[in-house]
Amino acid sequence: MTWIALRMLMGDRAKYFGLIFGVAFATLLMSQQVSIFMGIIRRTASQILDVRDCSIWVMDEKSRYIDEVPALPDTDLFRVRGVEGVAWAVRLYYGQNRARLEDGNLRNLLLYGVDDETMVAAPQTLLAGSLDDLRQPDAVIVDKAGYEYMWPEDHGKYQIGRTFELNDRRAVLVGVCKASPPFVTLPVLYTRYSQAVEFVPHRRNLMSFVMVQHEPNRNPEEVCRRINEQTGLMALTQNQFFWKTVYYFLGSTGIPVNFGITITLGFIVGAAITGQTFYLFTIENLKQFGALKAMGVSNLRLIGMILLQAVVVGVLGYGIGIGLTAAFFESTSGITHLAGLSLTPLAAGGCGVAVLCIIILTSLVAIAKVLVLEPAVVFRG
């Protein structure tokens, strides 16, 4: 019966490839859109994940996500340091700024002001220059994508020592680093905190976060609770702050709806193409199924044949679709603007479940047609 089922499936090559194409197209569309959606959502909090040398972020209690953080007075740093369970705490500036380049053009950017002594929150990987160079006067380090955005004429050949203006003050490029792309795709600039306060317009308070490392024998969530109680500030672990930012963008923007529409369309189109083709395939093979029934083949055996045909189509179509998605992300991995977007196991698994649903739905339609089939149909016309 297995051989007969496969011969029936592959006998009409046009319909056979049509079935596989429908599943492959649906898989490609769904897996690509789901992966891009996950990558973009991750970008909204990628700057949080880039800071790996502290465990707790302390901020104003009204903060909703990383880009909307009211500044704190410097005295809050000392209040946090006095909380039991805090091993050390340093300050961090984070905000948007605008640079004027040598040719007069303006570029908006994200500016980090890391602690002068410990360099906590400084970039981990330097592509050019050295982190120690950040201690020089007016020194800044920019991320790779930011350099290509600010000086595209260099075509990726880094020119250390370039100068430009921040808040009418001279800034000197001393390095290029690797950083996760932010959601707004702005250049990411690093400097010392004492230098950052010169690069931004003067305000009464400038400290965005207090970066905290808990003592080794302490639970970080317990330390966060103590900081909340004793200072009134919001203290979150890195993971908590990451998800707080992600949930903000999921709940306050149209990103999930837009991607959800595309993913749903991919599912509907895939189900429609596969369902229609599989149904027509079943209709055209009714005489063969009727003949098998007339020869005494049970309904259970016929159901097994249809499920086998559906599984073959589903596995081949899903494999081709996932392969095409992986090839797409592999071929675009070198494009700066698409950095960080990749096929994730969760996206591949989720699409696998969706394809399984498509296959089950189309199989049920075909099975229903065969179960009510009268064997006498084989003797007509």
Automatic annotation (TrEMBL):
Keyword field: Cell membrane, Membrane, Transmembrane, Transmembrane helix, Transport
Subcellular localization: Cell membrane
A Pfam family that the UniProt record links to this protein: FtsX
tRNA-binding found in the keyword field: no
Topology term for the membrane: Multi-pass membrane protein
Occurrences of domain ABC3 transporter permease C-terminal (ranges): 262-372
Transmembrane parts of this sequence: 259-281, 302-326, 346-372
Protein name: FtsX-like permease family protein
Any one cellular-component term (Gene Ontology): plasma membrane
Main location: membrane
InterPro entries: ABC-4/HrtB_transporter, ABC3_permease_C
